[in-house]
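Section 3.1: Structural characterization of target chains.
Under the original work plan, the team committed to producing a structural model for every single-chain target entering the pipeline before any wet-lab resources were allocated. The record below documents one such target. The sequence was received from the expression subgroup and is listed exactly as submitted; it comprises 50 residues.
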Amino acid sequence: MTDTFIKLVIKRENFFAKLKQFRAIATRYDKTARNFLGAIYLVASVIWLN
C-alpha cells in the first residue's frame, strides 16, 4: 500500500470517529432516513468547519 492511500484511510477513520461523538448520529435518534441524512450533513459540515 502506498503512503497516500494510508493517509486517506486514516482521514476517513478519524472523520467517522468524530462523527460518532455526536449522540444523535451514534444512536440514530431520527427515525426517518431523510432526517438522519440531514443530521449527518449538518454534523459533517460542523466537523469540516472546525
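The radius of gyration is 13 Å.
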